[in-house]
UniProtKB/TrEMBL annotation:
GO terms for molecular function: sulfurtransferase activity. One of its GO terms (biological process) is purine nucleotide metabolic process. The active site is at residue 175. It comes from Tolypothrix tenuis PCC 7101. This is ExsB family protein.
Length: 276
């Protein structure tokens, strides 16, 4: 199926739905879904963003701006995954409990507002990664049009650019809980510490990055080609001082560089094979 055919199929899916509530994080995937849904359904499409301590405040602001640019109605709800010890204990299937909370919030909201479908931004590539949250969404009847049509992450960006969405190249920004090694307890204070550290680095002009947190240590991950420039041009003692003010004791730089899903490398092969 060509990219144009995939776009037409996505439009047809929303036309068949007639009304849809979009689980909208503000990331490039769910924003493309929101754009196509609004183009087809107009005000019969609703974007809903879930807010919790694991969402960076700047990501929420981006989501608001993007929704307003598209024109789609936008609503914000609170989720309470931090109240669930199955989530905060940070097991390898943590994302299952996160998405369970999300869709247990969105599904009754959709029913109350008269939306027969809850739609998310899962793409075809996500089906080949370790994503336990996908199972939670499926169990609650959510649909994933991008995955249904076979739209890859690269095609998400290409379609976004074709549709003149200015954030088509926005870096991936998973929830802040993904910054912690499995088994380390997640707290609001730890999430805020990591969030403040990443915002600090972005204000230095860095975009595609992660601050991984393990105990009192912060590990900065940057694209490999940016590591040398970072070391030579950034005031490293100032970075250390800022991170220590945020609550870290030790600050390190990952010499391998940024790699999405890096913390999954500790999982056993059987866990990584749990594809949905």
């Amino acid at each position: 199926m060509t990219q144009k055919e995939k776009l037409e199929r996505l439009k047809a899916i929303f036309a068949e739905m007639e009304q849809a509530l979009i689980a909208y994080s503000g990331g490039v995937d769910s924003t493309l879904v929101a754009k196509i849904a609004y183009d087809v359904l107009g005000d019969r499409a609703l974007a809903v963003t879930a807010v919790s301590p694991s969402l960076l405040p700047e990501e929420l602001e981006d989501a608001k701006i993007q929704a307003a640019t598209i024109g789609i109605p936008h609503q914000i709800v609170q989720t309470n995954e931090m109240d669930n010890p199955n989530y905060t204990s940070n097991p390898v299937n943590r994302c299952y409990f996160c998405k369970s909370e999300l869709h247990d919030t969105l599904k009754p909201l959709a029913r109350e507002l008269g939306y027969p479908y809850v739609v998310d931004g899962v793409n075809a590539d996500d089906l080949h990664d370790y994503r336990p949250g996908i199972q939670a969404a499926k169990e609650r009847g959510a649909r994933s049009p991008l995955a249904e049509v076979g739209v890859s992450k690269m095609e998400v960006r290409q379609l976004s650019q074709e549709l003149s969405l200015p954030w088509w190249d926005k870096p991936a920004q998973p929830c802040l809980s993904s910054r912690f090694p499995y088994g380390e307890e997640i707290t609001v204070a730890k999430l805020q510490r990591v969030g403040r550290a990443e915002i600090y680095l972005r204000k230095l002009g860095l975009k595609n990055l992660r601050v991984r947190s393990e105990g009192d240590t912060a590990r900065i991950e940057l694209p490999p080609e940016q590591i040398k420039e970072f070391v030579l041009t950034i005031d490293l003692p100032q970075v250390v001082s800022a991170f220590q003010e945020f609550g870290f004791i030790y600050v390190t730089l990952d010499l391998e560089g940024y790699r999405s899903g890096k913390l999954n490398q500790v999982l056993q092969p059987q866990a990584l094979s749990l594809k949905i």
